[in-house]
Amino acid sequence: MHDLRAIRADPAAFDGAMARRGLGPVSREILALDAERRAALTELQALQERAKAISRQVAESRRGGEPADELVAEAARIKQETPALEQRATQKEDEIQRVLAGLPNALDADVPDGADESANVVLSQHGEPRDLGFQPRQHFELGEALRMMDFAAAAKMSGSRFVVLRGALARLERALGQFMLDLHTREHGYTEMAVPTLVNDAAAYGTDKLPKFGDTMFRTTDGRWLIPTAEVPLTFSVAGEVLAARALPLRLTALTECYRSEAGAAGRDTRGMLRQHQFRKVELVSITAPEASAEEHERMTRCAEAVLRALGLTFRRVLLCAGDTGFGAAKTFDLEVWLPGQQAWREISSCSNTRDFQARRMGARTRAGDGKALAFVHTLNGSGVAVGRALIAVMESHQQADGSILMPDALWPYMGSTQRIVPQ
Fold first, then answer.
1. In whole angstroms, what is the distance from residue 139 CA to residue 117 CA?
2. Are residues 19 and 124 in the same domain?
3. Phi and psi at residue 348, in whole multiples of 5°?
4. Model pLDDT for residues 288-334, shown as the tens digit of each residue
5. Is 227 a member of any domain?
6. Whether residue 159 is found in the same domain as residue 92
7. Given a cut of 70, is residue 267 above it in pLDDT?
8. What is the pTM of this model?
9. What's the total number of domains in the chain?
10. What are the distances in angstroms from CA 155 to CA 159, 220, 281?
11. What is the Cα–Cα distance from 307 to 274, expressed in whole angstroms?
12. Among 259, 261, 306, 406, who pairs with 398 as Cys (CB 3.0-4.6 Å)?
């Protein structure tokens, strides 16, 4: 959500910010609606003041025994006119909020321009894609050969874009999630949360998923939404609160099921586990003071990178350009992992600073250093990381010529005695 006062103060700057997002000028429409709303409020205020004055005059007339019929009639007319003005002001306010809710966040100045992912900038890389010494297989080829990854069974019960994992691969998925939670809570200072995976409209709206992404989410028959990521309940947990400065930053994490309808993804990644309707993810959320969010963004991204380092994966950090940055983000770092089977870099984590965009929508604030002035907090979210994609990366990166998969040292405590997954 955007600050209407800032748009009034500098509409050209706001239009420039939206132009970087590929949108035409929008300030004129917003300011026109705002002018109508303010005119209705001004007229309403004048009527209310007149009504108070009439009330005093009627009382004085009656005390003096003078007739007050004309005043009483005028008061009746004001009473009839007031609801229409109130409705007009409310209607214009709703229209303003509707327009603002559909506009993406303004980008940070250092986000590169560009229409799509081709303009993204690689900032750093950990490791180099290596020659495994044999023709690497993709994760679904490995999983099916191991008889531990079953897409047919999943399709029979749920349709496409689902999978059934068995045996050691099912344990590997569980191990990855537990390892990530332990790393983030023990070493990175995050507080583990157990949160609902069904949320209401207010939570989805407050974290910028509605109205923009309603068609990419699943909705229940009673009007709740299945979460696309734990970002929604974790971030919305501070909605409507005034947080003490000393309590910040709040660093929260959760491992949850996530659900996405993948609308618009027809024909993309139809084989394997890369794009599923249901998947598990460890989410990282930070709530910070405004002046601390840029530093927290860097810290959060390093926390996600630590997972990939521990798993022995080759990855790189990418700064997303204007055209590839998500709706609610002011700046995003993607972490892309090298998949030998695909011979391609694929996203495994996305860490974003939304600044006060979400906080304005959900009314989350903090007190400034003087303890008096209120300011909207800044919210950040990131994958710490996507469990299914981490499983894919471990399988493809640590595969052996015989089809077995070596386990990274970091996972040994979570895999029991299993240090290598072999065909059953």
1. 25
2. no
3. -125, -15
4. 999 999 999 999 999 999 999 999 999 999 999 999 999 999 999 99
5. yes
6. no
7. no
8. 0.92
9. 2
10. 4, 21, 22
11. 19
12. 406
